[in-house]
Design a protein that fits this description.
The complex is a heterodimer. Chain A is an alpha/beta fold. Helix content of chain A is about 35%, strand content about 20%. Chain A is built from 12 helices and 14 strands. A 7-stranded mixed sheet of chain A has the order 3-2-4-5-7-6-12, sandwiched between helices. A 5-stranded mixed sheet of chain A has the order 9-11-10-13-14, sandwiched between helices. Chain A has a two-stranded antiparallel sheet with strand order 1-8. Chain B is α/β, with parallel strands linked by helices. Chain B has 2 domains: about 300 residues, Thiamin diphosphate (ThDP)-binding fold, Pyr/PP domains (Rossmann fold, 3-Layer(aba) Sandwich), CATH 3.40.50; about 30 residues, no CATH class. In chain B, about 40% of the residues lie in helices and about 10% in strands. In chain B, strand 6, helix 9 and strand 7 form a beta-alpha-beta unit. Chain B is globular and about 70 Å long. Chain B starts with about 70 loop residues before the first helix and ends with a helix. The model of chain B has no long low-confidence stretch (mean pLDDT about 95). Classes of the chains: A alpha/beta, B alpha/beta. The interface between A and B is large, with 45 and 46 residues.
């Protein structure tokens, strides 16, 4: 075990897989010589050389398109999209190409590819470096959508994603790259080394896909969340003193419904938190699932705390970001309702 | 105030429309044998003259002339002719089957059989083709069973892709035929990725990418050219310019001011503009491009000039948007007739053999059709069980699909 930041854990996952499997290749804009704008691939080209790790043109449609072709050949490509906000030119290739290839060919061809991309705000990135477009991918049948909240899960989930025979969209909350972030942007940054979830094995291990984690056990209310918001929800529970059970979904789709249903059926109350915009966000699907599976256990309306339905603003970032006060207020409403 | 007249938007329009003859001078047809054949290790930019010319081998009498004459073995050419005749018979039969409502939809490759079949004969059997929906000739040339093709068209119980796709969206990894997406242009850049993977692994196989003139406007085309050029991917980038994208002519895709082959040279890719109805030119240019790829010299873009002899699909009526006799007047003729004339001229084909072959391929198609129909049709309801629609979304079926499969069972 060693202490790793999220960046180091993600890099370690690719390092391990490049070392274990000659069919793994890593590429994207600035990921080769430079090691990525967030340093996630730093040193990998020096260690594995080209063409195992290489730079690509600025063309997300091309990056995803060639990844699919490589996957069809038999490789396991790991492609980086520099920011989730830039994935849209590659969306057609993801939706109509990667996600459907196995289905439309009845298993004759497959695209075992992993597409990594940093998401979320909190770094004054404005509307081009802050988005959380996960719901655009959870809606697409044939894709797996994953978002870790800590170094241990990040490495284990990324290895599981690379080894998975389905295409995986792997979101990396960039505000968590260098430390757990609870939404108190005006306080000093906490390093990962201060948290036990930064204890990461150096070698190969996986965190299974389709499995949620009970991040914080509790009895009063269930919080369904993922990514940065896991830490914000934890702060809100701590600060309100509400005995919330926080479920870190980790795999958004397909997801671990049993853990969700088990928890909400027990607490009878549910708060859903995500950073992405509200309308048709993934929280809407979660709310629908909870009412389908837990309706007769519910003692209060399901609460949603999300980003507002606006583009992510630059100067007003912290008014947009669903911080611990907004989550705390929702916890109170959910637990105080009769 | 500039002092110039007001601005005007240019919207390209073909010279020919129903009731108005096409002026084919835009095709810039070079005489057979007139275009030089550069060495395969040519610098890409040094093909810049060829993108405005037209590589041709067969002259009007059917003689093979000039530097691109592939010197092909007559046996191979006979194979090519037979594959074209078989493909044409197959198409004709399936068009009728669609009219009889036995299949839901069909797309023939009438008039452009030579490009796919000629290239298939220039490739190794395990090179991977990323076809459009008009390259059924590749499957025929590679010996994929007609019955399997028809079962796909009928979406029946033996459909290899289980009724998942519209007719003609074939897939056969074993025959080096990548699943046809139906989304135009998608596979073009994926082919480049496949070729890059082959180079990464130190393999010897190359990729053959296909796109139509209309779809070259898609970003996927331009991404494919960028990636192919940057990484010198071992891929043949085939642009089938059959003059029409449903009702819009090739000028709407950008073919008016510059040929599609020009796009390649501008990207640093060796490029050729070739008579796609000249089977010998197809064979020669494909071999040239394949050798470049195989020798690690990088990609080649080939614009094939041909003509879509039939409708775009069974869902459109070409008499509504182009002159009814346009194919008859097309200066590059019919690839079947041109190869037949050449083979007859060199004593490798006769009228009797032609008549006999026509009968053979017709019988072969009919026999395949009888067998395919014995496995059912979409209309007869003999399709893969509805529960199979939940298979192959993921490798292992997730819980939510298990639940939905249970809910779907037996209900409408």
């Amino acid at each position: 075990m060693t202490t790793m930041t999220m960046v180091q854990a993600i890099r370690s996952a690719m390092d391990v897989m490049l070392g274990r499997d000659d069919d793994v290749v890593v590429f994207g804009e600035d990921v080769g010589y430079f090691g990525g704008v967030f340093r996630c691939t730093d040193g990998l080209q020096a260690k594995y050389g080209t063409p195992r790790v290489f730079d690509t043109p600025i063309a997300e449609g091309g990056i995803v398109g060639v990844a699919i072709g490589m996957g069809a050949y038999g490789l396991r490509p790991v492609a980086e999209i520099q920011f989730a906000d830039y994935v849209y030119p590659g969306y057609d290739q993801i939706v109509s190409g990667a996600a459907r290839l196995r289905y439309r060919s009845a298993g004759d061809f497959t695209a075992p590819i992993t597409i990594r991309m940093p998401c979320g705000g909190g770094i004054y990135g404005g509307q081009t470096h802050s988005q959380s477009p996960e719901a655009l991918f959870t809606h697409v049948c044939g894709l797996r959508t994953v978002m870790p909240s800590n170094p241990y899960d990040a490495k284990g989930l990324l290895i599981a994603s690379i080894e998975c025979d389905d295409p995986v969209i792997f979101f990396e909350p960039k505000r968590l790259y260098n430390g757990p972030f609870d939404g108190h942007h005006d306080r000093p940054m906490v390093p990962w080394s201060a948290h036990p979830l930064s204890e990461v094995p150096e070698g190969h291990y996986t965190v299974p896909l389709e499995s949620a984690a009970v991040f914080r056990p509790g009895e009063a209310v269930t919080v369904l969340t993922y990514g940065t918001m896991v830490w914000v929800a934890e702060a809100a529970a701590r600060e309100t003193g509400i005995d919330a059970e926080i479920i870190d979904l980790r795999s958004l789709w397909p997801l671990d419904l049993d853990t969700i249903v088990g928890s909400v059926s027990r607490t009878g109350r549910c708060v859903i938190v995500h950073e992405a915009t509200r309308t048709s966000g993934f929280g809407a699907e979660l709310a629908a699932l909870v009412q389908e599976h837990c309706f007769y256990h519910l003692e209060a309306p399901i609460e949603r705390v999300t980003g507002w339905d606006t583009p992510y603003p630059h100067a007003q970032e912290w008014a947009y970001f669903p911080g611990p006060q907004r989550v705390g207020a929702a916890l109170r409403r959910a637990t105080e309702a009769a | 105030m500039s002092g110039y007249p007001p601005l005007e938007l240019h919207v390209p329009e073909p010279s020919g429309r129903p009731g108005r003859e096409t002026d084919f001078s835009y095709l810039k047809v070079s005489p057979a044998g007139a275009v030089r054949r550069p060495p395969v290790d040519v610098r890409p930019i040094e093909t810049e003259d060829i993108v405005d010319l037209l590589v041709r081998v067969l002259d009007d009498e059917g003689r093979a002339v000039g530097p691109w004459d592939p010197g092909a073995d007559p046996g191979l050419l006979r194979r090519g002719l037979r594959a074209m005749l078989l493909t044409r018979a197959f198409d004709a039969r399936m068009l009728v089957a669609q009219r009889q409502k036995k299949i839901s939809f069909y797309m023939q490759c009438l008039g452009e059989e030579a490009v796919g079949i000629g290239q298939a004969l220039a490739l190794e059997p395990d090179d991977m083709c990323f076809p459009t929906y008009r390259q059924q000739g590749i499957l025929v040339a590679r010996g994929y069973p007609l019955v399997d093709m028809m079962c796909q068209l009928y979406s029946n119980e033996r459909d290899p892709i289980k009724g998942r796709q519209l007719p003609v969206m074939y897939s056969s990894k074993a025959h080096g035929f990548y699943s046809v997406a139906g989304n135009l242009g998608m596979g073009f850049v994926q082919a480049v990725g496949w070729a890059m993977a082959s180079a990464i692994k130190g393999d010897t196989r190359i990729a053959s990418a296909w796109i139509g003139d209309g779809s070259t406007a898609e970003a996927d085309f331009h991404n494919a050219l960028t990636f192919a050029a940057v990484y010198r991917a071992p891929v043949i980038l085939n642009v089938v310019n059959n003059q029409w994208a449903i009702s819009s002519f090739q000028g709407i895709a950008g073919g008016e001011a510059a040929t599609f082959a020009t796009r390649g040279v501008g990207n640093g890719i060796a490029s050729l503009r070739v008579d796609g109805n000249d089977f010998l030119a197809v064979l020669a240019a494909s071999r040239w491009a394949a050798e470049r790829a195989r020798r690690n010299l990088g990609p080649t873009l080939v614009e094939w000039i041909t003509y879509r002899g039939g409708a775009h699909s069974t869902a459109d009526d070409p008499s509504k948007y182009r002159p009814a006799d346009e194919w008859k007047r097309f200066p590059l003729g019919d690839p079947v007739e041109r190869l037949r004339r050449h083979l007859a001229l060199v004593g490798a084909w006769s009228d009797e053999e032609h008549a006999r072959t026509l009968k053979e391929v017709e019988e072969e198609v009919l026999a395949a059709q009888r067998e395919a129909e014995s496995h059912g049709t979409l209309a007869s309801g003999h399709v893969h069980d509805a529960s199979t629609m939940f298979d192959d979304v993921y490798k292992e079926m997730p819980a939510h699909l298990e639940r939905q499969r249970g809910q779907a069972g037996g209900t409408r």
